[in-house]
């Protein structure tokens, strides 16, 4: 059972390398709580890619896709960040905050 707002649809916006592992970057266009136009998701892609690339150390081993679920924001975590979900090959996800610079 996931503990996050489930991602139902997403679009790829790039990829990065973590060691020898290629990881796809995507942005959610639909979750269990909302929908957003693909055009908005594509606009958010470059900032999300920079944030993930700057903190590749936060990506759990075995991750094959990091999907931006929430655009940059603050929350209980006072640092402005993007919320990404790191998915492994089996589709298991872990929420990670990637600080915005």
Question: What's a quick, concise take on this entry?
Answer:
The protein has 101 residues and is α+β, with helices and mostly antiparallel strands. Helices cover 17% and strands 49% of the residues.
Overview of the molecule:
The chain is an alpha+beta fold. The chain has one domain. The chain is built from one helix and five strands. The protein has one helix spanning 38-54; strands spanning 7-18, 21-31, 63-73, 81-88, 93-99. The protein has a five-stranded mixed sheet, with helices on one face. The model has no long low-confidence stretch (mean pLDDT 89).
Helical segment count = 1
By helix and strand content, what is the structural category? alpha+beta
Number of strands: 5
Order of strands in the sheet with the most strands? Answer: 1-2-3-4-5
Q: How many strands, what sense, and barrel or not for the largest sheet?
A: 5 strands, mixed
Distance between the termini: 32 Å
Low-confidence stretches: none
Overall 3D form: globular
The helix content is 10-25%
SSE string: EEHEEE
Overall mean pLDDT stands at 89
> Structurally, how many domains make up the residues?
1
β-sheet strand percentage: over 45%
Q: Compute the CA-based radius of gyration.
A: 12 Å
């Amino acid at each position: 059972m996931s503990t996050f707002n489930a991602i139902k649809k997403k679009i790829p916006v790039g990829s990065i390398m973590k060691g020898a592992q290629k990881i796809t970057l995507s942005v959610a266009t639909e979750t269990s709580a909302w929908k957003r136009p693909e055009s908005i998701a594509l606009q958010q892609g470059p900032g999300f890619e920079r944030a993930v690339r700057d903190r590749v150390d936060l990506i759990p081993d075995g991750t094959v896709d990091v999907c931006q679920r929430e655009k940059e924001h603050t929350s209980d975590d006072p640092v402005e960040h993007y919320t990404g979900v790191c998915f492994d090959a089996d589709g298991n996800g872990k929420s990670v905050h990637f600080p915005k610079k």
